[in-house]
Amino acid sequence: MSYPQPSADQYALNAQQAFRLVTQMVSPGDIYEVTQSGYAFAVGPDSDVADIKITYYDAQSAQQFVNQVSISPSRAFAGYIVAQNDATYMPANRPGVILMWAGNLIPSNGFLPTGFNPDQDRIVMEYPILDVVQSFQPTASVTSSRPDKTWFYQEVVIGNTSGYVLIPYYGRKYAAVQLDNNSGHDVNFTVTGINFKISDTAPATYATLGTALVVTTANTMQIYRADTVGLFDYLMIHVTPTVVATGITLKVITSDADGCAAGGT
Amino acid sequence: MTNRLSPLVPAASVTGFPTTRPNRNLATQSSPGMAESPVARTKTLEGRTEISTLNTKADGKTYEIYSGDREWADLILTLRTAGPVAVGNKQHLGAVLSGGGEILIVNQPRKFTIHKGTKMYYAASAVSLVSVEIQPPPWVEQIAAGVERVIIALTGGKP
Question: Which one of A37, A39, A137 has the shortest CB-CB distance to B126?
Answer without folding.
Answer: A37
